[in-house]
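[agent] plan:
  1. take the single chain provided in the ticket
  2. run structure prediction with default settings
  3. attach structure tokens to the ticket
  4. add a short note for the reviewer (M.T.)
[agent] executing step 1
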Amino acid sequence: MTWLLNAAYLLLLALAAPWLLVKALRQGKYRHGLAQKLLGRVPQRRAAWGGIWFHGVSVGEINALAGIIEHFRRCCPDLPCAVSTTTRTGYELACRRFSGLDVFYMPLDFSWAVQQALTRQRPAMLVLAELELWPNLIALARRQGVRIAVVNGRLSERSFRGYSRLRPLVARWLAQVDLVAAQHADYAARFRALGAPRVEVTGSVKFDGAQNDRQHPHVQRLRRLAGLEDEHLVWLAGSTHAPEERLVLEAFAPLARQFPQLRLLLAPRHPERYASVCALLRASGLSWRRRTELETSCAHAPPAVILIDTVGELGWWWGTADIAFVGGSLSRRGGQNMIEPAAYGAAVAFGPNTWNFRDVSEALKAEQAAVVVHSAEELAAFVRRCIVEPDYRLSLGQRARELVLAQRGAQQRTCELLMELLPPTAPRAASTPAQEAA
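[agent] step 2 finished; step 3 output follows
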């Protein structure tokens, strides 16, 4: 099986090579960490005891893992932890958030790269965020005696249909996974139907990780940096994909003329699209500035639009927003995380395409804590109503915030399950935070 997988991966890599080369030359993508990705040349762990290897694909998964990682660093300070990711933005965020830990790119699922990484890291447990079923990684880790867990597990109906076509193979892979901690009962049922032997419903750890304090120093610093005053109303369009930036600007331009107190923060999902969004802003005729220019700018009047061209700050920027549009939902991306703006009590809107966060979006809609929009016109109407009806805006945000607070606890449940997988000889602190609280 291993050599068949390697052959299939090599064929796919050869077919994709021209496209990958263009991306590497134009955007710098895929060039970083090649030795780690292709050869498994990850950092060599020096500690004697086998630690925990956490993996999150990109920024969202790294943020979701952050609370779990911090839990283990408190409860088991002598237990080595390492963090891998797939994207450059995820890697940069992980380096900032987890100082002192080994951070590296996940090897591609070639047997030689995976084996080299496992040999160099020698983990006792491998923790995969959401859904990362790489056959060689799972098989070789299991052969080495590594316990394997999927946390914050998510399996959409579309992914389930795809995996079901290969059910015998998928069941073989899942049979080697010790634990799937699923976000939702529907996801759990799908994992079980595919053959996962142990599935627990924990809820989404993203509810626990979402900040909700608008007075937090990071939030207040960004408000000052952007020149936002109490009289301003802030609309943040976050994690946007094409063509959503164009639709947002079409909605914003007439509103800005009618309501001069309105400010727009625009945060594209992918850094490689910043240049194309800058072109849209230049053509719009609106006053605007890049976030990376704010600390060196001498301008006195704040611009109408700020382009957030940084990675890892969006969770704090949401705390400045009165009105929120969550991107990836008017495109075919399937939606992005709407928990963060909801936690701050912003009035939240998103498009109809939210299958990646179906359970969260459905819960928000069921509690009348978010609004679905289908076009630039509907988006403009939503923002207009939030401006002219402050009670509507505040009540919508309050319901969203209350829903998020009521859903917390998944992180603690997940950590308890992971602790059960650690061997009794694993180094632990004298008492855990939960024991101290008791």
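[agent] step 4 note for reviewer: Confidence is low (pLDDT under 50) at residues 432-438.
[agent] ticket updated
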